[in-house]
Automatic annotation (TrEMBL):
GO terms for molecular function: hydrolase activity. The lineage of its organism: Bacteria, Pseudomonadati, Bacteroidota, Sphingobacteriia, Sphingobacteriales. This is Serine hydrolase. SUPFAM superfamilies: beta-lactamase/transpeptidase-like (SSF56601). Keywords: Hydrolase. PANTHER family: BETA-LACTAMASE-RELATED, BETA-LACTAMASE-RELATED DOMAIN-CONTAINING PROTEIN. It comes from the Bacteria. Residues 99-373 form the Beta-lactamase-related domain. InterPro entries: Beta-lactam-related, Beta-lactam/transpept-like, Diverse_Enzym_Activities.
């Protein structure tokens, strides 16, 4: 009898709590998720920008063969290589075209980071060294460590929030946040587990906090900010969708759905130092701070963008230290799981990155942008592959 009552009670809870029910039903995110969420529309630009369309070029025949071969059975829906504003390689799966909206997952974080930079440029946020509680004072009561948490800590995923990013439990915070829980309520209850700026830990709720700050200082919702400050100025060719939670709050940390070439325009903006067709959309100072090679090599992550790390391995720590001294470098020596020691070398390329290897990769030295979108797969290390391709295109 007790077991029956427990079972009935449990089923009642599940079926009256739509977020857990949705997370149990769908659990693993995929490319069709925008259809199960409510979305806000980001309107396309009245003055669209077009990359030069793909045309077969004998100079890139070897590149084409390498990528074609590597992408077989990798669930890649779009893989596009752009150099000097021309598409030099293009792969689209059978069920995809250039007008298809595809999920960004955490690529959205880089759009939000860019919107923060624009707000700083305009004085809406005085400085990224401002305390978060200056803008969200309600958090101060949750934990005394909020008195030392800055916007920069949040931008760089060094907040120390008590939040577990990796969980497949349908009742976990990260799963609930993706499938529609009230995000403002979740943020309002945030606590800390470590002192700010002591450790890097990738946590999506950092970006949700940034979104709330942006909406507070501008008086506009995040979808409107994206439309006005980036989507239309960058000449987006198509409308985009941005998913919302059950209360209608934008999911800042994920869930922009757009075309591959419209994603590429964020890469082009950073490639050109924040300038778009003669207009400074975001300050060069912000772009330089975000993409500086020394910062990327040491921090791995800056202002919601990722470094593309380049490792040098050694059999012991002493060998690594000697090499660093020889090259006059101050990078930290780390130990890999296989026992080898390594340090991350200086890199000049960077990326916006999302789950399942969604990527906007930028290589300033070679003037290359690479977009990879698609589903989950394990056959190809896309992070390394995209980096290898981007660094090989020198002509």
């Amino acid at each position: 009898m007790k077991k029956t009552i427990f079972a009935v009670t449990f089923i009642s809870i599940i079926y009256t709590a739509c977020v857990p029910l949705r997370s149990i039903k769908y659990l693993i995110p995929d490319s069709r998720d925008s259809a199960i969420f409510n979305n806000q529309t980001i309107q396309k630009s009245a003055n669209p920008f077009y990359f030069k369309p793909y045309q077969a070029n004998p100079a890139y025949a070897a590149l084409k063969q390498k990528i074609d071969t590597s992408l077989i059975d990798t669930k890649t829906s779009a893989f596009i290589v752009i150099k000097n504003d021309s598409i030099i390689y293009q792969h689209l799966s059978e069920d995809t075209n250039l007008q298809a909206k595809q999920p960004s997952f955490s690529i959205s974080k880089s759009f939000v980071g860019t919107l923060v930079g624009i707000a700083v440029d305009r004085g809406q946020i005085k400085s990224t060294n401002d305390l978060v509680i200056k803008y969200l004072p309600e958090l101060a009561k949750n934990d005394e460590r909020f008195n030392r948490l800055t916007i920069q800590h949040v931008l760089d995923m060094r907040s120390g929030f008590d939040f577990n990013e990796r969980s497949l439990n349908p009742f976990s915070k990260i799963v609930r946040s993706y499938y529609g829980a009230d995000l403002k309520k979740m943020v309002s209850k945030l606590k800390m587990k470590s002192e700010p700026n002591t450790v890097f830990e990738y946590q999506s709720l950092n970006t949700q906090v940034l979104g709330m700050i942006l909406e507070k200082v501008t008086g506009k919702t995040l979808d409107v900010l994206l439309q006005e400050n980036l989507w239309q100025p960058l000449g987006a060719q198509s409308d985009a969708l941005w998913s919302v939670d059950k209360e209608g709050n934008i999911k800042s940390f994920c869930c922009i759905n757009a075309t591959a070439l419209d994603y590429a325009k964020l890469g082009r903006l950073y490639l050109n130092g924040g300038n778009w067709q003669g207009k400074q959309i975001i300050s060069k100072k912000w772009v330089d701070a975000t993409t500086h090679p020394d910062t990327l090599a040491k921090k791995r992550y800056k202002n919601q963008f990722w470094a593309t790390r380049d490792f040098k391995y050694f059999p012991d720590s002493l060998s690594a230290i000697k090499q660093l001294e020889k090259e006059h470098l101050g990078y930290p020596v780390e130990r890999n799981n296989d026992g080898r020691y390594f340090y991350a070398k200086k890199v000049y390329d960077f990326k916006a990155q999302g789950m399942f290897h969604q990527s906007i990769y930028v290589n300033p030295q070679n003037q290359v942008i690479i977009i990879r979108l698609g589903g989950r797969q394990k056959e190809l290390n896309f992070h390394g592959f995209v980096q290898e391709i981007g660094r090989s295109i020198c002509k």
